[in-house]
């Protein structure tokens, strides 16, 4: 029978911290357009999303059997590498949050692990073909697929309801948005919470606390679900603002089209076995909805910065994960140093964010990004 | 490398078909629902409003059914 070492405790805490950042990073995926169009008051939106994430965490029975889904060689992975990888993912998630950029939390986690394993076990521990298959191609495909669906749907929604009265139409689509956004939240809970549960469970198994092949104990499910739900409820308003108001001016028919497109793509891909990134699906859906109404309404500058963040997510998290691994390798002292450094970075980023806070109160104000002048001509 | 191109194509086609269908049905429902208040204002024959309400009800029911299927797909216990 194994025992709770300092390292195991640190990995569990880091995994829960990552889960929390995952939650507030991804609230925007489900709720950004509902908040932007006024379908839901901001605080109600994050409360619904948080609750459904918690429900989703308890519903998911298919807990991740591998830490990385085959992207790194799991037999070479040790707890301190997992720890270093998680630190890389957390730091990158906090940094992109500070800039209000919706980047994929899964990519951050994979990136952190790749960096940590590369430094810890050598380049042979990283499966690059898997990286291409599971990250590169889905990253390009997801926004395109969701964007095209949302664009066609938005266009048709406006054509069909053109003769309807605007007030009635807006109200009708807002109602629909609540339903489609809730489905995204539920799907998110069943997918993302189980990744953290998998990481914690596999760490406990490697430490001998759980026997091989055992599922997550109830307290792991509870902690992981709570961490992601609290993160979701905390709101990540900076990213909600970017996705709801920054990318495009979203009206309720567009919000409904974007969310419906995202929900369908997420469900279809998880059902037909093609892994797509939720964040990128939802961003693509919002862009498509912007194009579907009027091309000029899309702020391509914001979209470009977002795409840049997507490209950098994996390598940047990998660098942080790799540096953390190099230090954590030195033993307990190294791990303590990385812990303190991670906390310091988190506090620094939080302090900087307080200079220009984005809250439930001002989430719908226009971001400072340049507004396309074409809108003023209309 | 084993990229599942056919799975990707399938996802794209199914999403396009289903996603667009839901939005179109919902949009027709919203339009039909707005017929009734308009009919009241313009003294149109009373039947137009009732017909609109029934059509809207059917559209929203269809969307609710698809949403229920979505929940069925999300919740593993149902499988």
Task: Give the structure's gist in a few sentences.
The complex is a heterodimer of chains A (378) and B (79). With 378 residues, chain A is an all-alpha fold. Chain A is built from 13 helices and no strands.
Number of helices of chain A: 13
The ordered H/E elements of chain B are HHH
**Structure class of chain B:** mainly alpha
Mean pLDDT across residues of chain A: 87
Structural class of chain A: mainly alpha
- What is the CA–CA distance across the termini of chain A? 71 Å
Determine the strand fraction of chain A and express it as a percent band: under 5%
Indicate how many domains the architecture of chain A comprises: 1
Portion of residues within helices of chain A: over 70%
Q: What radius of gyration of chain B results from the CA coordinates?
A: 19 Å
Number of helices of chain B: 3
Spell out the helices and strands of chain A N to C: HHHHHHHHHHHHH
Q: Regions of chain A with pLDDT < 50 over 5+ consecutive residues? A: 369-378
Could you give the count of β-strands of chain A?
A: 0
Q: How much strand content do the residues of chain B show?
A: under 5%
The first-to-last residue Cα distance of chain B is 31 Å
In quaternary terms, these chains amount to heterodimer
Unreliable spans of chain B are none
What's the β-strand tally of chain B? 0
Descriptive report:
The complex is a heterodimer of chains A (378) and B (79). Chain A has one domain. Chain A has 13 helices and no strands. In chain A, helix 1 crosses helix 2, helix 1 packs across helix 9 and helix 5 packs parallel to helix 10. Chain B is an all-alpha fold and 79 residues long. Chain B has one domain. Chain B contains three helices and no strands. In chain B, helix 1 packs antiparallel against helix 3 and helix 2 runs antiparallel to helix 3. The two termini of chain B are 31 Å apart. The interface between A and B is large, with 53 and 37 residues. Chain A: GO terms for molecular function: phosphate transmembrane transporter activity. Chain A: Pfam families: PHO4. Chain A: It is a multi-pass membrane protein. Chain A: Belongs to the inorganic phosphate transporter (PiT) (TC 2.A.20) family.
């Amino acid at each position: 029978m194994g025992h709770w070492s300092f390292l195991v405790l640190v990995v569990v805490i880091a995994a829960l911290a990552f889960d929390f950042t995952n939650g507030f990073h991804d609230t925007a995926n489900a709720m950004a357009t509902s908040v932007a169009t006024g379908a839901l008051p901001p605080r109600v939106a994050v409360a619904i999303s948080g609750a459904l994430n918690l429900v989703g965490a308890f519903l998911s029975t298919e807990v991740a059997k591998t830490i990385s889904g085959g992207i790194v060689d799991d037999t070479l992975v040790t707890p301190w590498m997992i720890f270093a990888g998680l630190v890389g993912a957390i730091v990158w998630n906090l940094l992109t949050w500070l800039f209000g950029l919706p980047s994929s939390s899964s990519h951050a986690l994979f990136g952190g692990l790749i960096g940590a394993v590369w430094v810890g076990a050598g380049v042979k521990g990283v499966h690059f073909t898997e990286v291409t298959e599971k990250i590169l191609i889905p990253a390009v495909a997801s926004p395109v697929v969701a964007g095209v669906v949302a664009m066609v749907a938005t266009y048709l929604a406006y054509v069909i309801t053109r003769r309807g009265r605007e007030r009635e139409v807006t109200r009708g689509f807002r109602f629909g948005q609540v339903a489609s956004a809730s489905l995204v939240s539920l799907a998110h809970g069943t997918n993302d919470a189980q990744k953290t549960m998998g990481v914690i469970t596999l760490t406990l198994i490697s430490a001998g606390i759980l026997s091989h092949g055992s599922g997550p104990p109830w307290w792991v499910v509870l902690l992981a679900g709570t961490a992601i739900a609290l993160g979701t409820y905390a709101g990540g308003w900076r990213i909600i603002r970017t996705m709801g108001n920054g990318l495009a001016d979203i009206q309720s028919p567009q919000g409904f089209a974007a969310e419906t497109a995202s929900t369908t793509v997420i469900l279809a891909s998880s059902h037909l076995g093609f892994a797509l990134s939720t964040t990128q699906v939802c961003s693509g859906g919002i862009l498509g909805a912007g194009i579907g109404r009027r091309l000029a309404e899309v702020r391509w500058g914001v979209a470009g910065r977002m795409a840049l963040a997507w490209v950098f997510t994996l390598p940047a998290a990998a660098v942080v994960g790799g540096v953390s691994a190099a230090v954590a390798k030195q033993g307990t002292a190294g791990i303590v140093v990385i812990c303190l450094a991670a906390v310091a970075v988190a506090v620094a980023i939080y302090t900087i964010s307080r200079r220009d806070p984005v809250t439930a109160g001002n989430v719908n104000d226009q971001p400072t990004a340049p507004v396309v002048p074409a809108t003023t001509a209309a | 490398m084993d990229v599942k191109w056919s799975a990707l194509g399938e996802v794209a086609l199914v999403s396009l078909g289903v996603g667009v269908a839901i939005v179109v049905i919902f949009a027709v429902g919203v339009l039909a629902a707005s017929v009734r208040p308009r009919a009241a204002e313009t003294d149109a024959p009373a039947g137009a409003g009732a017909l609109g309400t029934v059509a809207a009800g059917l559209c929203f029911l269809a969307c609710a059914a698809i949403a229920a299927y979505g929940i069925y797909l999300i919740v593993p216990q149902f499988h």
